[in-house]
Amino acid sequence: MKIATEWQDYKIIATGDGYKLERWKDVVLLRPDPQVIWKAKTDLFSYPSVDAVYHRSEKGGGEWEFRRKIPDEWTVSYRSLRFKIKPMGFKHTGLFPEQAVNWDKMASLIQNAGRPIKVLNLFAYTGGATVACAKAGAEVVHVDAAKGMVERAGENARLSGIESGIRYIIDDCKKFVQREIRRGNKYDAVIMDPPSYGRGPGGEMWKIEESLYPFVQLCTQVLSEDPLFFLINSYTTGLQPMVLHNILKLCLAGRPGQIDAYEVGIATEEGIPLPCGAGGMYIHG
Q1: Dihedral sign (CA 80, 84, 87, 93)
Q2: Cα–Cα dist 143/78, whole Å
């Protein structure tokens, strides 16, 4: 497991009973987490400093209970990167802090490449990976179907001091890649963080068990002759790291390099890591 341990503005204070208690700079949130199936040592709902709690609904979704007045949004920092945080629907805050382990790895690869690197970030959300790669010196094309998330990615880039080098695209990822293939455009790195289920702006259906493998195959057609890396993230419950390893191995057969597949987690103040999904990365060489 690769564990994010270097955060200063984010901490997981405690876990248990399906929830994680976390501090985002000066704000303490209590949010559900499907991986937390163990008992809490203390009642997390009674923690004295909780500012907001996300309550799940039996009908799906849920809502926030704000116990104290907090800002509508605020900023957190990770190394030289800065991101806006905002409690949103479906318990989200606009950032997945465990992805810092991938940000660091990609930034290192880009900085040590010794050449210009062009990155395609698909299902790019609010741009954590986009900002990390651009800050490291890459040119990035950021693609997501949700206009609001793409706009927030631009805000995060500007907060991090990035004024150029990122192209923002609001589109269905598959359709965009198909157009890039027809145009003959190539990328030195591909990042994707696909949902379990989703719909594109034109009603396009995505189901990860059926869609991921052919989509990775499609994306290999936009890789340059000397690619730097190909990263797949997954939050789909039950999708093991070795599944991502196998997909990359099959789709990139014949290309020299190595594939690393791993769980992604984040450190907690309880001394146990919280599992937060899986990653698979092909590194050329």
Answers
A1: negative
A2: 23
